[in-house]
Design brief:
Layout: E1 2-5, E2 15-19, E3 25-28, E4 32-33, E5 39-51, E6 56-62, E7 69-70, E8 82-90, E9 94-95, E10 102-109, E11 117-128, E12 133-137, E13 142-146
Antiparallel strand pairs: 1-2, 2-11, 3-10, 4-10, 5-8, 5-9, 5-11, 6-7, 6-10, 12-13
């Protein structure tokens, strides 16, 4: 089952412990309000003990009726087997499709994990109205990375820059 853990934690004083079994088990959180056209990202600190088949953690977009699944949720975030200490896992930002009203976070433990334990701590679902961008500076240049599943035809990104101490901006 699922229980509160107070000794094996990543941050603070509590985590969630999910015990494995010889059969498939899945758990999900209540529906979380979400908005179409916004970007969502799930992150978690996870640790495992005696895991044979890696568990999965993902999120799914739902329509206003709370039962209709929509496209565009995350794939499996966790890739841990055996026994491993806490480490961070995070999805890419996903665009909530038209009709999105909710997000549901789910955990699944494959069969064949009898006696195994999955610990989850610091689970966060982030929302962003803007397209997430990451800048990576090198000695001579800077690279711009956009977190998106697919390219949009004829999309243009405008990058503005200026020299340090200057008030003049360039495109």
């Amino acid at each position: 089952g699922v229980s509160l853990e107070t000794t094996v934690v990543a941050e603070g004083s509590q985590a969630v412990k999910i015990s494995g079994a010889s059969f498939y088990k899945s758990y999900s959180h209540d529906l979380i309000p979400a908005s179409e056209g916004k970007y969502y990202r799930l992150s978690v600190q996870a640790a495992v003990e005696n895991v044979s088949v890696t568990p999965s953690l993902s999120f799914t977009f739902y329509a206003a009726d709370g039962t209709t699944k929509l496209a565009g949720g995350s794939s499996t975030l966790i890739d841990l087997e055996g026994t491993a200490p806490y480490r961070e896992f995070a999805s890419r930002y996903r665009l909530a499709p038209a009709g999105t009203a909710y997000v549901k976070v789910g955990v699944a433990f494959a069969k064949g994990n009898s006696g195994a334990k999955l610990y989850l701590d610091e689970v966060h679902l982030y929302e962003s109205a803007n397209l997430p961008v990451r800048l990576v500076a090198t000695y001579e240049s800077i690279s711009v990375y956009v977190s998106r599943e697919a390219q949009i035809a004829n999309e243009v990104a405008h990058v503005y820059y200026r020299e340090a101490g200057s008030s003049q901006w360039y495109e």
